[in-house]
Each structure stands twice: as C-alpha cells, then as structure tokens.
C-alpha cells in the first residue's frame, strides 16, 4: 500500500481554470520524491492539498490508505502532526528564539515541558543548530532559518516531510546544506516530498522526479532529470 | 486554568502597548455607554418629576360649607390615580392674590374676603389620567369649575413617550456600537498575531488551542475596561447623590411608578457594565478569531 496516493485529482481555483488536471501518482513509505515544474505549474497546490489547506474539486487523496477528504476539522491537527511541512518563506516567528520556534510544534500538541526540553535540542542537533538555540530569526542566515523550519517540522517525528521550495530563498551553499539534511532525514526512514524548480539539486540527487506542467503530470521517473 | 492565566500574563507583558490601547478604547466605549444610560435614566426621572407637578385645580362653589369641602378633599385623596392633594382655603386664595398683586393697590382695594373660591390642587401619578380625572371631578356636587392645562399636559405626554422610546432605542443602538468597537479592538489584537496563528494551525494546533488564549484575552480586556468605566460611573453617581441631586431616587422607563435609590441604580449599572464587558469580550473574541479557524 502506498503511503500517499493522488487519484485523478482536479483542483480549480476559478471555474474552468484547472491548477491540477487529473493528476495521479503514488508515493511509498521512505521514498525521496521531487515534484518539479515551472512556477505556477501546481506544485504548491499539491502541498496544500496534502496538508488539507485546500480541497480538490474532484478525485481523492489517500494518506496511509485513508482518504484525507473525509478528515473532519477536529482531526486535521492530527493529520498535520503526521505530515511535517517546510515552507519556502520559513514561517518563523521573529518574537521567538530558535528553541521557542521549534517548541511551538510540540506546545500545540500539548506536550509536557519535560518532553519539549528533551525533543527540541535533539531535533536542533539533527539540523546542526545546537549552538544557535537561543538566537532570534533576525540573527540567522537564510539557510539557518530554513534549518529551524526543518527542525520544527521534525519535532512531531512525522511520517512524511513535505518541503515546498525549501531552497527558493537561500544561497546555493546553504541550499546544499538543507538538501543534505533532508537526505539524512530520509535515510532514517521519513518520506520526503520536495517541490522545487531548482535543476541543480534535482539533477545532483538523482531521485524520483514527478514533473507537473500546466497542472498536468507530464512525467514520473526514478533517477529522473529536470530541465526547466 | 493556571496555564491559561500565565499565558495571558505573558501575552500582556509582550504586547504592552497593544493591550493598553485596547483597554483604553474599550474603557472609553463602556464609559460612554454608562454615561449614556445615566443620561437617559436621569432625563426620564426629570420628566417624571415634572409630570407629577402637573396639576388639576378644583374650584368649589363660594357657598359650599367647609365640611363638604373636606369630605370631597378626603374622597379625592383616596383616588388611586392621585399622588398629592393640597387645599387652598378662601383665606389662602386671598393671600396668594394679594401677594401676586401687591404693586396694584387699586385692584387690591376692590377685593373683599370671600370673593375668591376655595380650591384643591390635585397632582396625578400619571399625566394620561388627568383628562378623565378632570371630567369626573367637575361632576362632583359643590364643584364650580375644574381647570387643567390640556395643551401643556398633552405636550408633556408626547415628550415623555418620545424620551422613553428614543432612550430605549439609543441604548440598544449604543450596545450594538459598543459591540462593534469591542470586536474591532479585539480583531486588531488577533490580526497582529495572524502569522503565529497560521503557523500554529499548520503545525497541528487544534481549534481550542488557538482559541482559548484569545478568548481569555478578550474576556480580560472586556472585564477590566468595563470595571474601570463602571467605577468612574459609580463615583459620578455617588457625587450626584451627595450633592442632593435625585435624592428621591430615579425612575426607569420600563418600570413606571417605581423609584430606585440612585446608589442602588449605580450598583445595578456597575453589574450590567461588567457583565456586558464579560459577554462582549467573550463573543467579540470568538467572532474575531473565526477566520483563523478555517482549514
């Protein structure tokens, strides 16, 4: 059984304008998958559909064999704790330090203070940010901010980590660091789905590549390459 | 509960200026609401007082014996519609006439004792009864004439109805305005946390986790600002009372005929304002947070 299945998914924001047009694919547990395509192709919509920020107009999306379309509002938080998300713009709170920004993911799940004190340093060490634990986002580089965002997504030990253009706002060296961390997380068994249009990274890693163009899935190859 | 309070105190410390401006705006709103309710009640009380001054004058026939006059007076005093009866004897009438015309000696010379009739000045509890009372009293044997100022009375009646109705509508409208102001103030606070709330939802926060601290904050702002304004209103009313204003009490439009001590009224208003603060804070923050609870 696939961990994630998109089955004939159609998403329209405006009537007649399909952002995703009959898209189907499966992703297995432990895979590292790139979703590529030019800006506006529908990559971010796939991410938002997976986290239930959006609903498809038709088709179905399965997570661990169950349709997420049937997940009601009271169960959405549970789904989001199983799917960690890393955002292009980091989505960090400037008023909170690195530790607090990561801890927020545990606080919302009402974890105890002891749990927070033990988990946060662990995930920060995974992304090599132990020494920046009490710095504020303004004191960090773009790459470091993105690593905080990854640490926050990891705090719940999610089954899947979705990264939406995680290297889009950082320099190439930092982008390599971020991708190396995602590979390390993947090697520990977490599924990684990374939406990107960064050809260099996709071509270097030689992972499975799902290509979306104008809302349609145009290719799906393991060890695929991407030319924008 | 303890966790919610410590979160609330933490938030207030972090957002000192925002909290201060919210409490100021909401205090001014509640203060205006309280002052407005006071003004409406005071104007209704003043009108009620003037209503009770409205009188019918019952003139007796010149030859009616004193014992008959006293018997009629006693019967009128028993009338449940009457609030007060005072007797003006023939001698009193002459004295009043002389006092009024003391600078016209020629006129005073022509007046002889017994030329002016004895009379009763009757005040009604409700001005709308004056016409019927006047008609009834004019039929009493021994009564020569009954006078009351119908124009003035009907104008009074109109104004008192207008003050009751407009006052009621204004209070309702002011409640709605206060609700809007409170919601706008709370929405400003909640919108300033938009990013934090969005992140919370994306990392798996439940609705209640997002909502509860903001409801606490809304209720806190509502109760604190309502309490400050209620205390100001209470002090104002105590000062009015100590200066002897409305010493006899105040009346409420929807409770005709009942006079309430000004301090008791102020205490009721304090409770109403604090309860309004609680409810507006609760429902205002609930309504302001709705858009952040959509998935």
Outline type of chain A: globular
Based on secondary structure, the structural category of chain A is alpha/beta
Specify the overall morphology of chain B: rod-shaped
Q: What fraction, in percent, of the residue positions of chain A are helical?
A: 25-40%
Report how far apart the termini of chain A are: 32 Å
Overall residue-averaged pLDDT value of chain B: 85
- Which regions of chain B have little confidence, pLDDT < 50, spanning 5+ residues? none
Order of helices and strands of chain B: HHEHEHHEHEHHHEEH
State the secondary-structure class of chain B: alpha+beta
What is the CA-CA span between the terminal residues of chain B? 27 Å
Which series of helices and strands of chain A comes N to C? EEEHEEHEHHHEHEHEE
Instruction: Give the spatial strand order of the biggest sheet of chain B.
Output: 2-3-1-4
Q: Main β-sheet of chain A: number of strands, strand sense, barrel status?
A: 6 strands, mixed
Q: Greatest interface and its residue counts?
A: A-B, 24 and 15 residues
Number of helices of chain A: 7
Quaternary state, please?
heterodimer
How many strands, what sense, and barrel or not for the largest sheet of chain B?
4 strands, antiparallel
* Poorly predicted runs of 5 or more residues of chain A: none
| Cα-based radius of gyration of chain A, to the nearest Å | 17 Å
**Strand order in space, largest sheet of chain A:** 6-7-8-3-9-10
Helix content bin of chain B: 55-70%
